[in-house]
From TrEMBL:
CDD domains on file: HATPase_EvgS-ArcB-TorS-like (cd16922), HisKA (cd00082)
Pfam families to which the protein is assigned, alphabetical: HATPase_c, HisKA
PANTHER family, alphabetized: HISTIDINE KINASE, TWO-COMPONENT HISTIDINE KINASE
Reactions performed catalytically: ATP + protein L-histidine = ADP + protein N-phospho-L-histidine
EC id: 2.7.13.3
Designated name of the protein: histidine kinase
InterPro entries for this protein: HATPase_C_sf, HATPase_dom, His_kinase_dom, HisK_dim/P_dom, HisK_dim/P_sf, Sensor_HK_Regulatory, Sig_transdc_His_kin-like_C
This protein's record includes keyword Cell division: no
Top-level taxon: Bacteria
Domain Histidine kinase: 265-483
Molecular function as annotated in GO: phosphorelay sensor kinase activity
Alphabetic keyword roster: Kinase, Membrane, Phosphoprotein, Transferase, Transmembrane, Transmembrane helix, Two-component regulatory system
Phosphoprotein recorded as keyword: yes
């Protein structure tokens, strides 16, 4: 029993400094100590004063004993009697010294050296009580040591100190015991219940307090029990819902991937014949032999224009699919902003003027070079200008290019129909326009602004829109300059300028060589040769036409024909669509060849030491890749 009690108190005291009871004890104990010390100081002071008063009373008692005899001796001028009385008084244990003054003569008697700071003095005068009570005869002063006061008050002070220590100790024990019993233990139960609930969320945690008078804590425990029960039920329900949602999420993700794959494949399949239609119609539009009449030329213009519009829409669908899948990548290069923006201006100004609208163009000449994706910036600005051109019937379209510290600020504003404020929040959503009537009246898919927003996000820039009905719309785009990358790419920029110069030169040449076999045969001996392996000539038609301007190109639809041609002739470059061959054929017949190779694939492929281009590819970018590969 004794050990249990000792262990109980040992546990309490050992862990007490880690509990809330300790904090409460500290606050109360400090106040209690202050109060006790104040009261103790007052008691000690009172005891000291009491001892001092008792000493003075004792001195008065001595005065009363000898005053009559001393008065008679003074009145009779009996010095022997006076000395005898003084000696008798001095023999008292209380008296440490006496000073007696008569007829201006001072008599001093003492047992020890008298220091006024260490002694209490009491004096009185002697008068002629027989003849004239007011007549002064002599004075006497008694001295008693203060040690007597200290000695008398010492016992009382010790008792006071002992009482203080006992009361403090009892207070400490009681506070620790009762804070542990009524506060710490119930709180620990609450804490353990909460921890148990954290570890086993699906199980109900129940806390039971043994004491009925723990009102607030009992209410808290009951509230926790109800809460844990409700939360446990909610968690079970939530987990069931989460399981259902995860299943639905997986189904939606699969459907979304299937949709993205479908859109990407359909876009690719549509682009291939459409590129051929646009290319052939543009060649026929030249009407070099004058075999087509005016009506046929106009029909070809309609075909070419509609084909380009359809290609633009297909590209939008393809881009949005890549953006949703996170597969769209930016191709950074050093860009001359002035050249790019004037190119866009020259492209759109005739279209604006054709609609009898005004076109305002401003360019901040402080802007020079930036490091970004030229084609995607062009796509953003073209989309914004196309929207303005679509929705403005009269007034002005503005393209303003400004220098904004670390950004290029592109502002496209117009005096068009405007957008309601409540529609601005959803204006960047995919496949959304202001309302259904807008789509019916003006056309479009509602992808342009969504693509712009996502592309600006890839650039880590910003896009904002402001609009007011019947007053117009202003869209502001911020594109980072990435100036720290510009200097690193100056050498690369010079190379790209040479490539661009070659590409521009080839673009200005006529496409009629397709029908001029004699010229091709004459030039073929001087040109470098390229062999292409693919089973879909339409998808490579635009590239082959572009390459035939400067190279001798041979296509093969089968691996057998391709191997035969490469054995007969040494080609400068091999372009292989790896979707046309198996992995074994690629490894055994293609990758072992000594010629330079460019591999084309619909999916990302990791083949070491090989140049890989992903389908569908941009013809101009593919030409640039071929030029680099040939010159490497």
């Amino acid at each position: 029993m004794k050990e249990r009690i000792l262990n109980y108190f040992s546990d309490i005291f050992n862990n007490f400094n880690q509990t809330i009871g300790y904090l409460i004890f500290k606050k109360i104990f400090l106040g209690y100590i202050f109060l006790v010390l104040t009261l103790a100081s007052y008691q000690i002071f009172s005891e000291y004063n009491k001892a001092q008063n008792e000493l003075i009373n004792d001195l008065k008692r001595i005065e009363n004993l000898f005053i009559d005899d001393l008065t008679k001796a003074v009145m009779n001028n009996n010095k022997e009697r006076i000395d005898k009385i003084i000696e008798i008084i001095l023999k008292d244990d209380l008296i440490s010294g006496i000073t007696f003054e008569i007829n201006k003569e001072k008599i001093l008697r003492h047992k020890q050296n008298i220091n006024s700071e260490d002694f209490v003095s009491y004096g009185y005068s002697i008068f002629d009580t027989a003849k004239n009570p007011r007549k002064y005869l002599a004075s006497i002063q008694l001295f008693a040591s203060k040690d007597i006061i200290k000695k008398e008050s010492k016992k009382s002070i010790m008792l006071i100190i002992i009482n203080i220590l006992i009361s403090v100790l009892m207070f400490w024990i009681l506070v620790i015991t009762y804070t542990n019993l009524y506060l710490t233990i119930p709180l620990k139960k609450l804490i353990n219940g909460i921890k148990s609930f954290e570890e086993h969320e699906e199980e109900r945690s129940h806390i039971k307090l043994q004491l009925n008078n723990l009102r607030e804590l009992t209410v808290l425990a009951d509230s926790f029990n109800k809460m844990s029960s409700k939360i446990s039920e909610d968690i079970i329900n939530l987990r069931q819902l989460t399981m259902i949602q995860n299943l639905q999420k997986k189904a939606l993700e699969q459907a979304n991937r299937a949709k993205d794959d479908f859109l990407a494949n359909m876009s690719h399949e549509l682009k291939t014949p459409l590129n051929s239609i646009n290319l052939i119609s543009s060649i026929m539009l030249k009407n070099k032999d004058k075999k087509l009449n005016e009506k046929e030329v106009k029909n070809l213009e309609i075909i070419n224009r509609c084909g380009n519009d359809l290609l633009f829409l297909i590209n939008d669908v393809l881009d949005i699919s890549k953006l949703e899948a996170g597969k769209l990548e930016l191709y950074y290069e050093t860009i001359d902003v002035k050249e790019l923006m004037y190119e866009i201006k020259d492209m759109f100004e005739p279209q604006v003027l054709e609609k009898d609208l005004e076109f305002k163009f401003e360019f901040d000449r402080k802007l020079e070079l930036i490091y970004s994706d030229k084609q995607r910036i062009k796509q953003i600005v073209k989309n914004l200008l196309s929207n303005s051109l679509k929705f403005v019937h009269e007034g002005e379209i503005r393209l303003l290019i400004k220098d904004k510290e670390e950004y290029v600020e592109i502002i496209v504003s117009d005096d068009g129909i405007g957008i309601e404020k409540d529609k601005l929040e959803t204006i960047f959503d995919r496949f959304k326009q202001v309302d259904g009537s807008t789509t019916r009246k003006y056309g479009g898919t509602g992808l342009g602004l969504a693509i712009c927003r996502d592309l600006v996000g890839l650039f880590k820039g910003d896009i904002k829109i402001e609009s007011e009905i019947d007053k117009g719309t202003t869209i502001t785009v911020l594109i980072p300059k990435n100036l720290d990358q510009v200097n690193k790419c100056e050498l690369q920029k010079e190379e790209e300028k040479l490539i661009t110069k070659k590409a521009k030169k080839t673009k200005n040449e006529t496409l009629d060589f397709l029908f001029d076999e004699e010229l091709e045969n004459k030039e073929s001996k001087k040109k470098r040769s390229i062999a292409i392996l693919n089973n879909d000539h339409l998808s490579y038609m635009s590239l082959v036409i572009e390459l035939n301007k400067n190279y001798r190109v041979q296509q093969s639809a089968s691996l057998k024909d391709f191997i035969s041609k490469t054995k007969e002739e040494k080609f400068d470059l091999l372009i292989v669509d790896i979707d046309s061959v198996t992995k074994e054929q690629l490894r055994n017949y293609i990758l072992e060849k000594e010629e330079k190779i460019i591999l084309v694939s619909k999916e990302k492929t990791d083949i070491e030491n090989q140049e890989i281009v992903e389908k569908p590819f941009d013809t101009n970018q593919m030409v640039n890749t071929i030029l680099k590969r040939l010159d490497s």
